[in-house]
Amino acid sequence: MLNRTIAPGFKQVEGISLIKPGHIQFNNGCNLFHFNSGDQELVRIEWIFGNLRFDPANPLLNIAVNAMLTEGTETLSAAEIADRIDYYGAFLQVDYGYDNSTVTLYSLNKHLDKTLPVLHDILNNSVFPEKEIETFKMTQQQKLQIGLQKNDVQARRKFNKALYGDTIYGYGAELADYKKLNQLNMQAHFKQMYQPSNCTIMVAGRVDAAMLNLMGDTFEANWKNNQSKADTTQPPLQPATEKFYFVEKADALQSAIRMGRPTINRTHPDFPAVQVLNTVLGGYFGSRLMANIREDKGYTYGIGSAMTSLKQSGSIFIATEVGADVCRAALTEIEKEVNLLKTELVPEEELALVKNFMLGSLLGSLENVMSHADKFKNIYFSGLGYDYYDYYIETIKSITSEKILQLANQYLDYDNFYKVVAGKY
């Protein structure tokens, strides 16, 4: 019988075994990657499109067109689309990201012959009805007005604008921007962006030859490119020269703090090592920022740091909300923790804990075939291969305190951080 009073033995993660995809390139230019695993007769199919070049004159087009894809086609209303998907126990969602926009279908395999034609219709014949556009504008403007009352929203918008300027990464919607949306410009944007040569399809779940043939019949022969090629290039990033921003809220009980700087993305050799540095600083519940500013000082319920990896850039940032009366003190403690990493070696015991946390998180994130597909997307859209994950694991296992110290001096320059405070200061 298992003796539960004795802790399980410790085993270090030596490597991970990732499910690798099959690949089909359709004659229309669309790439399809498929991951077959699992006993359930269920698949997740993602149609991933590169966002078109950011247009400052109509900055909401990428976001709005993606959000309204399911609001009607030439033959189906929004309600009819929803009814057809629901009837077959399927689920449909659209998601916007800075670099790509995605349409995702979860469906039982036995109903794909009914659900895929609905997706084909959406990706070819969306019409963006005027009535639905007006409803979208009204609801989104209301959401924006509510969002702008929140300090963390204000801090995030200011921070992104400071790092990236008037680009797709730095943009924050304004109420007036919604007035620029109309049926004509949304349809033109849709025709240029949602075409097979600008699409990558990811299929994960129970995949067989019949299913792939059905995908080919629906999205190869019957899905054609338009004359206008999708322009997915983006304007150069425009970091601001001003480093400190204060959004005053005289009645604020809490102040939102966001600070950081543009840095490397996943394609840089230092990225996994800087992720270790970030985890020590604020990347998990036992991090230094949490231990000091939450557990010791009691200034906040939560504080963390994170790294982003985008197509054109990356960033490292710290975010929290603290009591308005201790905002300056919290900033002082954040600076102290950053500078400690630049001057003192991380103790071996602490570094070992962080390594185990990161390797365990990697293993824990591979819970099903869909998460394997997600891992592939990380490297595919970064132009990397599967050896990235071998390099990632080896970097974590072998990194030393001396290397952490060197990286902290290279990447954590507190004086050059962009700093935003929304609330009281």
UniProtKB/TrEMBL annotation:
Residues 185-356 form the Peptidase M16 C-terminal domain. Residues 66-146 form the Peptidase M16 N-terminal domain. SUPFAM superfamilies: LuxS/MPP-like metallohydrolase (SSF63411). It holds the Pfam family Peptidase_M16. This is Insulinase family protein. It comes from Mucilaginibacter boryungensis.
